From TrEMBL:
Protein name: DUF624 domain-containing protein
Cytoplasm recorded as keyword: no
Transmembrane helix recorded as keyword: yes
Organism whose genome encodes this protein: Paenibacillus montaniterrae
Organism lineage: Bacteria, Bacillati, Bacillota, Bacilli, Bacillales
Domain of life: Bacteria
Record key words, sorted: Membrane, Transmembrane, Transmembrane helix
Length: 269
């Protein structure tokens, strides 16, 4: 029996700490090549092993390597993490963590990999365009536009993972709908961007231990929660439309009933 009162609150808190940390560690483990390369690259820069004249080449090589690794490691691992986050947000908090995670990894591996390749190419192209135009005559305006597009692509990536674990759709359809939702629901997109940015800010500047235990799983939970609000609202709109259509059909049927038409009108027909 679950304890009540203060002890019950502490018990539930420790349960969520365990859930979030386990899923975050599984996420890092399954995306190990990607995260290991980030860690090594960061240490290399931190130790000053790269000369200033070689810095740009080092960063470009690192980004290219990460771009190759991401679709095959980071994206499937993140899809698995979102599978668990979906269960949490929809009220299934006590799901078996390992089983749910690895089932999500297996079921979504192919689509997450294909989506990862497309998103990686898209984001790389936007970043290259940003650096290309930043030195041009109207560089400040154009670079600002491309920063906005990069943020838009990253937010739509969160929606992509949420839709991937929620719908049975083809990969291109998932990407298209993710972009449409991101553009069509600007307030929700801004909310997602702000919340994720806040988590990342705390993780990189204040509490770096969050990166190992909580950052990824918290972002997944927040992102899916935000998507679920969009989904629930769309479902409500669809139900309202169906209800209105049914009412219109009923009204039309009533108006078409001959037995309700006044007799003097019938005689003049």
């Amino acid at each position: 029996m679950e304890p009540r009162g203060v002890m019950g609150g502490i018990y539930r808190l420790t349960e969520w700490i365990m859930r979030l940390s386990v899923i975050n560690l599984l996420w890092i483990l399954c995306g190990a090549p990607f995260f290991y390369f980030i860690f090594v690259s960061f240490l290399t820069l931190l130790n000053g092993s790269v000369q200033e004249e070689d810095l740009l080449g080092f960063v470009q090589t690192a980004c290219l390597t990460l771009g190759v690794l991401a679709p095959f490691t980071f994206f499937p691992s993140t899809a698995a993490m979102f599978t668990v986050a979906r269960k949490w947000v929809t009220g299934e908090a006590d799901v078996p963590l390992f089983k749910t995670f690895f089932k999500g990894y297996k079921d979504n591996f192919k689509q997450s990999m294909l989506g990862g390749i497309i998103y990686t190419v898209l984001i790389v192209v936007l970043i290259v365009d940003y650096y290309f135009f930043i030195g041009s005559e109207n560089g400040r305006i154009l670079s600002g536009i491309f920063i906005g597009l990069i943020v838009l692509a990253l937010v739509s990536l969160l929606n992509f993972f949420s839709m991937l674990v929620h719908y049975h759709m083809k990969t291109l359809q998932l990407i298209k709908n993710s972009l449409l939702i991101t553009i069509g629901k600007p307030l929700r997109s801004i909310t997602a961007a702000v919340l994720v940015a806040f988590i990342l800010f705390l993780s990189f500047t204040q509490f770096t231990w969050l990166l190992l235990f909580f950052t990824g799983s918290m972002i997944a939970a927040v992102a899916y929660w935000n998507f679920n609000l969009i989904y629930m609202k769309l479902q409500q709109q669809i139900e309202d439309m169906k209800k209105n259509e049914e009412e219109e059909v009923e009204i039309a049927a009533e108006m078409d009933r001959e037995d309700l038409v006044k007799s003097d009108y019938k005689e003049t027909k």
